[in-house]
């Protein structure tokens, strides 16, 4: 019965068709009645086209020989036309099989506090893509083959894309060196700017704390929310400033001096509008970007603060950074939208929030979350902390003026039982 169940799973995962011979591409579909059109261009590119019907699904498939335990780099290029959501509809999967075409056990490390002794069947791998010139997106990922793997079955999909077309080229799976990782040191300052008396005075209070973080080789330092407003007894509009403006100039100079990135919260003025904004300053002293708080609690909207409407993600020298602010953390949509746009780290200036939600936002999106709060640690309402991709707190400040800092690896794969590397699935499977 157990063997029959394994065979059934393999049949489902392989779409009920035979594997192509090694080195050859074959076309297929889970069911004939939803099979689209397949063709090749004169240059050998692989094409899938859907007609006007919904629910079609087809793939090009190839089998590659592998040796268990070794690392392999997958690469491919994809161009789509008429596909509304390429991440959901035009993607790649890789399945590891043994020499008898059976799905193998996944003996690679699981990153979870649960079921540590559990050894699941290998899930599908989902290489990620990044946009490139000319409408082509490049897929690139390095995987360690499970110990008993002898074959990697690569499928190039197009599904659920009426009148859509995808073209694939330059597909390869080659042995590679183990990834070296992308180590980054994430820091958050636990501090209330009390006694500053003016917006400029409040800013000055953070300078020695940024220096303290720099002394610990921080790459990114996250400061508090609306720090030029805190404790001054003024209305948001009375402390609001343009971006670029005084705060970008001040924190930009500190970022340049210490060769790091700084996230700081302020009230921003844009014509007649006031926004609760987080700014990201780069090591060149320039503004990398800003995020305007989308969700507004009662004490902001009823003082004339306007909501933002976008979820930008910014490329830094170590990876992609998104930002959210305080009340955003109560709603899963904000962190999820940042994740869908590629965020690997979310910086979170937060006056106060439920720390269980911080853990949830990190775990459900498999991102690193860096929070800087004005809450005293005794309240346990919010923490100044670094949360890892599984929701664990890997660094936490307990005293005012303390800097929480953690070194993390952005390339670390967070493999969960039965799901494998879950973050790679989020952009394919999350509700739209």
Task: Please render the helix and strand layout as text.
Blueprint: H1 2-13, E1 26-28, E2 37-40, E3 46-49, E4 57-65, E5 71-81, H2 86-89, E6 92-97, E7 129-131, E8 136-144, E9 151-159, E10 165-176, E11 183-190, H3 199-215, E12 220-222, H4 236-239, H5 246-258, E13 261-270, E14 273-281, E15 287-292, H6 298-301, E16 305-306, E17 313-315, E18 320-323, H7 332-340, E19 345-350, H8 355-365, E20 368-373, E21 385-387, E22 393-396, E23 402-409, E24 415-416, E25 420-421, H9 422-429
Parallel strand pairs: 11-12, 12-13, 14-16, 18-19, 19-20
Antiparallel strand pairs: 1-4, 2-3, 3-10, 4-9, 5-8, 5-10, 6-9, 7-8, 11-23, 13-14, 14-15, 17-18, 20-21, 21-22, 24-25
Helix pairs in contact: 3-5, 7-8
Description:
This protein is of the alpha+beta class. The protein folds into two domains: 2-178, Jelly Rolls (Sandwich); 183-409, Carbon-nitrogen hydrolase (Nitrilase/N-carbamoyl-D-aminoacid amidohydrolase), CATH 3.60.110. Helices cover 19% and strands 34% of the residues. It is built from nine helices and 25 strands. The protein has helices spanning 2-13, 86-89, 199-215, 236-239, 246-258, 298-301, 332-340, 355-365, 422-429; strands at 26-28, 37-40, 46-49, 57-65, 71-81, 92-97, 129-131, 136-144, 151-159, 165-176, 183-190, 220-222, 261-270, 273-281, 287-292, 305-306, 313-315, 320-323, 345-350, 368-373, 385-387, 393-396, 402-409, 415-416, 420-421. Strands 11, 12, 13, 14, 15, 16 and 23 form a seven-stranded mixed beta sheet that branches. Strand 21 (385-387) and strand 22 form a beta hairpin. Helix 3 (199-215) packs parallel to helix 5 (246-258) and helix 7 runs parallel beside helix 8 (355-365). The longest helix is centred in the middle third of the chain and has 17 residues, at 199-215. The protein is elongated and about 70 Å long. The chain starts with a helix and ends with a helix. The relative contact order is 0.12. Mean pLDDT is 92; it is low at 1-22.
